[in-house]
Amino acid sequence: MHAAIRWVPLAALLAAAPMGAASAAPKPAEPFPLFIARDVAGQKQSTATFRGAPTLVLAITDRGAGDAMRAWFEGAQKRAPTVRLKGLISIDVPSFVSDDFVRARARETIPKTRWHDNLLDTHLGIAQVLSLPESDVPWAFVLDAQGRIVAAAHAKADAQAASAVWKSLEAVM
Q: Which DSSP symbol is given to 103?
């Protein structure tokens, strides 16, 4: 049995979500959705911890998007070195692949100091809560200290669409 995400509110959120909500990713001025998921180390974390300081949240929904996510993190460290960085890895893996195996593989590529900053699920649960379809391109969300989305983009870090995120990130710092 997989222990990817065990949320009390998850079932309610998924049941209440309209069927056509697949492209309704969170938008600027909205609060970032609250949920609980396990991080790369296997510990439960809440997105409520994303509040309190400006934060760049990067979400990927495809195993092949890891390098693109890393490019966002590297760009943020250069442009706004004091911003908090959070990752959401929500991928679909075959049922015979254990969550522990996926977490172990993630720990091989994510620095140990960042394990608790990256939430991971292997059944697209986080993606469903955020209404993010599978894509090899990351989503980037700039949050203010209150957890509201200031800017969002579905783009690679060097794409034109990313410029609004970079400008907003620098503005909230």
A: H
